[in-house]
Amino acid sequence: MSSGNDASTQAQKRAAAEGRAQGLDIGWTVFSYLLAGMAAYGAIGWLIGRAVHVSLLFPIGMLVGLAISLGYIIYRYGRGGLGGTASPQDRGGHRGGRPPGGDKEMSGDR
Amino acid sequence: MTGDVGVLASGGCHIFSGCGFPAPGLQDFEWKPLFSIGSFDFTKPMLLAILAALVVIVFFWVAFRSPKLVPRGMQNLGEIAILGVRDQILRPSLGKRGDSYLPLLVSLFFFIYIMNVMELIPIFQFPVTSRIGFVWPLVFIVYFLYLYLGVKNQGPWGYLKNMIPPGVPAPIYIILVPVELLRFFVFQPFTLGVRLFGNMFAGHLLLTIFTLASWYLLSLSVGLVYAAGSFALAIFVFLLETLVTLLQAFIFTTLTATYIASSVEPAH
């Protein structure tokens, strides 16, 4: 009975740790998208604006980039569908392919 | 340390004594060289970084120089440290088969943590990671590692292609390419480094401000009340920083693990 409770507690801790890692990953990815969208389309706007002598294209580009980033973030993470949110266990034990060292367990694993 | 902080700390500079509050600033992150070899200046943060590395190396060497089946003493502590990183950082992102990255993540976590926690140790009293030059090398190690792993496991084209999840319509795909490229190659490593640096920089600045203000406001006047308030805040920030030092090391290492995970297999 108690071993069942222990297993359940372990599973809960594991799920909480996975949730934390995913939350951090998604949080900082979203932040990076917002910056990258503004920087990418701001730069494109600035370059076009420089060519056609319309300096307003720089801030417009940034706003367009921000809108693209927001749309993409909502598309990718908003419905919980595409965000790569499968747990390592769902991916056959890990998120990665096959890191060198394979299936080795630590000695003293507990 | 240069700047006004040393002057304030050494003298009787208090409120109503005619001396203004020399607020801490960037000058408090600049250090006079301890010694120089030619044009190379060896400063206190460098010494602290070396000390941090030595602490990590010596701790794990002592803990595991003659490992026993039933761990005792330092080995027990060492195993708790390693298993903590494995179960809280590595396994949630990489799963069991990512255990080969454990030495990297353990070293990274404890090196960053010790560099951060230098802020709270009397005599040292400076977080090494509040100098961004100490953060970028760590970021570059992580950056080149996950780029290498991504290219090795998915191929150069597959790695680039997998940045955008499948199922995105072609016109949207083209729109997203500059965003994804910039996000992946510039902002992902940038945020990884700047977050660690920014948190430690701000924490050290806050701690310095409230500690100095407690001293500056100390006088036989109403300033005494303000000094007490400032001192209470200094204690609060100190306690907060004990958490932040650990949290920043944890976040850096966790994100490293997730970046490695998305390199060895596309996360989407």
Description:
Chain A is mainly α. Helices cover 66% and strands 0% of the residues of chain A. The two termini of chain A are 19 Å apart. Mean pLDDT of chain A is 75; it is low at 83-110. A two-stranded antiparallel ribbon of chain B has the order 1-2. Chain B starts with a helix and ends with a helix. Chain B is mainly alpha-helical and 268 residues long. Chain B is globular and about 70 Å long. In chain B, a hairpin with a 2-residue loop joins β1 (35-37) and β2. At the A-B interface, α1 and α2 of A face α3, α7 and α8 of B.
Low-confidence stretches of chain A: 83-110
Total number of strands of chain A: 0
Q: Which outline of chain A best applies?
A: rod-shaped
Rg of chain A, rounded, reads: 22 Å
Strand content of chain B is: under 5%
Compute the separation of the termini of chain A in Å.
Answer: 19 Å
Strand order of the largest sheet of chain B: 1-2
Q: Output the helix-strand order of chain B.
A: HEEHHHHHHH
**Biggest beta sheet summary of chain B:** 2 strands, antiparallel
Q: How many DSSP E strands of chain B?
A: 2
Overall structural class of chain A, as computed from helix and strand content, comes to: mainly alpha
Mean pLDDT of chain B: 88
Distance between the termini of chain B: 48 Å
Largest sheet of chain A: none
Helical run tally of chain B: 8
Radius of gyration of chain B: 23 Å
